[in-house]
Amino acid sequence: MLLADDWKDYELIDTGGGEKLERWGRYTLRRPDPQAIWPVAGNEKAWRNVDAHYHRSSSGGGRWEYIKKLPSQWTIKYGDLEFYIEPTGFKHTGLFPEQAVNWKWIERKIKGAGKKVSVLNLFAYTGGATVAAAHAGAEVCHVDASKGMVTRAKENLALSKLGDRPVRFIVDDVVKFVAREKRRGRRYDAVIMDPPSYGRGPNGEVWKIEDEIYGLITQCMDVLTDEPLFFLVNSYTTGLSPTVIGNMLKLSMQRRYGGNVTADEVGLVASATGLVLPCGAAGRWEAYYE
């Protein structure tokens, strides 16, 4: 399993009973997590001593209960990278801390390339991977259908003191954007994608991952350079196992370019118990070039 286990400003404290207990900088949050179906094994008192607790509604959605006064947003650091944290009405905070294990890999691949690297980041959300790639020295094209998420990604880049780096921010439907990039003749050395299970583009375009993901991978191959560096697919869709992602990369990227494919679960370790909380899956293709 790929574990994001070197955080200082973030901590997964405990899990169980369909929830997770987390420290985000100075603040402790309690949120639902459908994977944590086992009983709580840590200190139950810690679960009560929180700053905010997200309660699911039986009719869908939910709400935050603020036990203590919280700022509307605050920041946390991961190494040299810095991000805004903001509890939203959909239980999220604007950052997926488990992705730090992919950020480290992205930075290592870019720094080890020995050349200028251009990265296409699709479904790029609030820009964790974009900030990491820019920090490593890459030129990045960040694409997401949500204007609000793209705005936050710009803010995270500036917060990390990387606002002068060559990053293009695009609000667009990912599939349509990639098709236009092919017509324009643009090429990238690496692709990162974190597709949702289901979503809609800015003009109502419907995305269902099981119908679209393999076609998008092959479509992205049309905008790669002749000697691409890496291709990363991350997913939180329960039915999209690491093996499934790995198989798709083998049939597409590895068949055309050779190289190596690895795929595994991504996870976080609870400090109170040592139990691992699974947080999706990642598939990585990387080149074999001397």
Textual characterization of the structure:
It is a single chain. The chain has 290 residues and is α/β, with parallel strands linked by helices. The chain has 2 domains: 2-85, Golgi alpha-mannosidase II (Immunoglobulin-like); 97-286, Vaccinia Virus protein VP39 (Rossmann fold), CATH 3.40.50. The protein has helices spanning 44-48, 100-111, 128-135, 147-159, 174-184, 209-221, 242-257; strands spanning 2-3, 10-16, 19-24, 27-32, 52-56, 62-66, 74-78, 81-85, 118-122, 139-144, 167-171, 190-193, 198-200, 206-208, 230-235, 260-269, 276-286. It has an 8-stranded mixed β-sheet. A 5-stranded mixed β-sheet has the order 2-3-4-5-6, with no helix packed on it. Strands 7-8 form a two-stranded antiparallel sheet. α4 (147-159) links the parallel β10 and β11 (167-171). The radius of gyration is 19 Å and the shape is globular. It starts with a strand and ends with a strand.
**Which CATH class of the largest domain applies here?**
Alpha Beta
Element order: H for helix, E for strand: EEEEHEEEEHEHEHEHEEEHEHEE
Major sheet: 8 strands, mixed
Number of domains: 2
Mean pLDDT: 94
Q: What is the number of helical segments per DSSP (H or I, 4+ residues)?
A: 7
Helix and strand content put the structural class at: alpha/beta
Give the CATH superfamily of the largest domain: Vaccinia Virus protein VP39
The CATH topology of the largest domain is given as Rossmann fold
Shape: globular
N- to C-terminal distance: 28 Å
CATH level-two architecture of the largest domain: 3-Layer(aba) Sandwich
- Secondary structure: helix percent: 25-40%
